[in-house]
Design brief:
The complex is a heterodimer of chains A (about 500) and B (about 110). By secondary structure, chain A is α+β, with helices and mostly antiparallel strands. Chain A folds into three domains: about 10-310, no CATH class; about 325-435, no CATH class; about 445-500, Arc Repressor Mutant, subunit A. Helices cover about 40% and strands about 20% of the residues of chain A. In chain A, the strands form four sheets. A nine-stranded mixed sheet of chain A has the order 2-6-7-10-1-11-12-13-14. Chain A has a three-stranded antiparallel sheet with strand order 5-4-15, with no helix packed on it. Chain A is elongated and about 95 Å long. The termini of chain A are far apart. With about 110 residues, chain B is mainly α. The two termini of chain B are about 25 Å apart. Chain B has a domain at about 10-45: Orthogonal Bundle (Histone, subunit A). Classes of the chains: A alpha+beta (about 500), B mainly alpha (about 110). Strand 9 (about 160) of chain A pairs antiparallel with strand 1 (about 100-105) of chain B, so a sheet runs across the interface.
Chain lengths: ~500, ~110
């Protein structure tokens, strides 16, 4: 929770927050949007630059084909329509990290419009519902460079500029003002990121700024909303510079309460940009300059219209992977997994892919899911590893699942073997080969033990003979104990019944 | 901004100059206003032509009858090209520490 102004729940309940999001996503192309410079996070400052991204006079931009393909893929994944002919425009403003004096963006004819995301939410009565959040548009643009305001001896009087990021291809995804709570904001972003990661167009790494979010927040009186509808929307403030979903949730929550506080005090919300300060848990005004919104857009004369014809669009979309929602439903129906397991397996594409490959090879997909989601996931988390770093390979997982399924190893043995895999960083096949439980599969040896147990338990034998056949489990257990858990379970089951029936 | 029917005021000139990052002296302001009014007057004259049947043109290709590529044929393949030498770049910068461009202190907008 943010350090907000103590407003009573009754006061808060009078107001309806309205929130729209603008999400900037860096595309995972090898080169920048309009030049062949490396598109790569970091790097020695100002070494990924050329006349185009430095904005030198006479340099001409040439659009990156891959960036267009990623934009189309991302747009379709969030249900947008593709505009066959879109136009690039100049958005004019002066800032040192944008050396051309304008940003190449798209304005009135963006590449994609009218998408949607379905997010979990709650209705007025508090029941869980699926909520549709409209997506106004997805357009292509270029990123600016980086300004470093602190950390140098002369930072009091100088700002340092690194233009490596300048010209990085972005898509900006603008939602309709359909969000009503900070939690919905969080859910929307989570879903959006999940889908974008599946499409592979971005790594969505918030720490490195590959995914950035601005939230437009306003509040209005519910009574006013009922009377006048969207005409009642209040003045919005834009919350910028928030680099995690959790902080965005806190920032939006704070901003909602701040605005209600302003109105309750008889004040007026000012249209402005506000920065979130995480340490203080509050937003504060970035000196508002109304004129900063006068961007004087006009069509970019250096770039022809972008035409994504039907044929090209079809080619691009052939690379569309199965998206998380569809995969979730399929895993549940195809493999009989629980909704929860299917959801966990599809939170990221890599885990889902890994499961599917293993499931295809193993005898029991359900067993694979169980081991992957409990035993493997738990040990990865314990070792702070990601799936790609797991010592247990795909084949290792399949082997483990098959052995467990066939009853050749007990769940306790499985845990021990996996522990060894993780402590020694060795694959399952290696550990199993070395440490495999010495199983007794010698029929005569097992029979001898069964005879011994039968002789020692005449009462149970009588029960069995009297028709209570489930008592056989008692004998299996006793023999297993006698063999120190090493009797082959399948063989043992078979022999116990045979002996008792004899 | 005023519309094209009313004259450009000194205030308009200040606003536009500000957007363009230009510092105009007190003498330059009225001269600019005069020039802008003259230019807009000329544009107003052009506006008398009926262009309702003419498509706006931001690109010459169409006017030249060049059919646009529809499958990205004219776009750039995503292949890295060498960037330029930083020392050469920084030699042209007004102020630099050799690694960064340095500019007068700005506050995040």
């Amino acid at each position: 929770m943010s350090a907000a102004l103590a407003l009573s729940p009754e006061v808060l309940a009078k107001y309806q927050p309205v929130i729209g999001l603008e999400v900037h996503v860096q595309l995972l192309t090898k080169t920048k949007a309009f030049c062949g410079c490396k598109n790569e996070y970091g790097g020695e400052p100002n070494t990924h630059v050329c006349p185009v991204c430095l904005g030198l006079p006479g340099a001409l931009p040439v659009l990156n084909k891959q960036a267009v393909e990623y934009a189309v893929l991302a747009a379709k994944a969030i249900g947008c329509e593709i505009r066959e002919t879109s136009i690039f425009s100049r958005k004019n403003y002066f800032y040192p990290d944008s050396p051309k004096g304008y940003q190449i963006s798209q304005f009135d004819k963006p590449i994609a419009e009218n998408g949607e995301l379905i997010v979990p939410g709650f209705d007025a009565a508090g029941n869980a519902i699926s909520k549709r959040i409209g997506i106004t548009r997805l357009h292509m643009e270029e990123d600016a460079g980086k300004s470093l305001h602190d950390g140098f001896a002369d930072s009091a009087s100088r700002t340092y500029i690194d233009l490596n990021r300048c010209g990085t291809p972005l898509v900006e995804i603008v939602s309709e003002p359909d969000l009503r709570t900070a939690d919905e904001v969080f859910e929307y972003l989570t879903k959006l990121k999940e889908i974008l990661l599946y499409t592979g167009v971005s790594d969505c790494n918030m720490e490195e700024g590959s995914l950035r979010c601005d939230a437009n927040v306003s509040v209005m009186l519910k009574s006013d909303w009922e009377a006048r509808g969207t005409a009642a929307y209040g003045t919005k403030a834009e919350v910028k510079n928030v680099n995690s979903f959790r902080y965005i949730r806190a920032a939006v929550e704070y901003e909602i309460e701040r605005q209600i506080g302003v109105i309750e005090d008889g004040g007026r919300v000012v249209q402005e940009s506000r920065l979130w300060n995480n340490a203080e848990g509050r937003t504060y005004s970035m000196r508002s300059k109304e004129q900063a919104h006068d961007y004087r857009y006009f069509p970019e004369p250096d770039l022809p219209a972008l035409v994504v014809g039907a044929e090209w669009q079809k080619n691009i979309l052939s690379a569309m992977p199965e998206l998380p929602e569809a995969r979730r439903a399929r895993l549940a129906s195809e493999y009989g997994l629980s909704t929860q397991d299917a959801a966990t397996l599809t939170t990221d594409r890599e885990l889902g892919d890994f499961f599917q490959q293993a499931a295809a090879l193993a005898k029991s997909p359900k067993r694979v899911a169980a081991i992957l989601l409990s035993e493997i996931t738990m040990r990865l988390r314990g070792g702070e590893l990601v799936l790609g770093q797991s010592p247990v390979s795909l084949n290792g997982l399949v082997l483990a699942a098959d052995l467990a399924e066939a009853g050749e190893i007990s769940s306790k043995q499985l845990k021990q073997l996996l522990d060894s895999c993780f402590t020694e960083s060795k694959d399952f096949a290696f550990i199993y080969d070395r440490d495999k439980p010495q199983q007794i599969s010698d029929t005569s040896a097992i029979e001898a033990m069964i005879d011994e147990v039968i002789a020692a338990n005449p009462a149970q034998v009588a029960q069995f003979k009297g028709g209570k056949r489930t008592v056989s489990a008692f004998f299996v257990g006793q023999v297993m104990k006698l063999s120190k858990g090493q009797a082959n379970p399948a063989l043992l089951n078979e022999l116990v019944v045979k002996k008792l029936d004899a | 901004m005023s519309n094209q029917n009313s004259a450009v005021s000194l205030e308009d000139v200040r606003h536009v100059a500000d957007l363009a990052n230009l510092e105009l002296t007190a003498e330059e302001l009225p001269r600019m206003a005069h020039d802008l009014n003259a230019i807009l007057g000329h544009i107003a004259q052009l506006s008398e032509l009926d262009t309702s049947q003419v498509e706006p043109m931001a690109q010459v290709a169409e006017a030249l009858g060049i059919a646009p590529a529809t499958a990205g044929e004219t776009l750039r393949p995503d292949v890295v090209k060498p960037s330029v030498d930083r020392a050469a770049v920084m030699s042209q910068a007004p102020e630099s520490d050799g690694r960064f461009f340095k500019v007068p202190k700005v506050i995040e907008r």
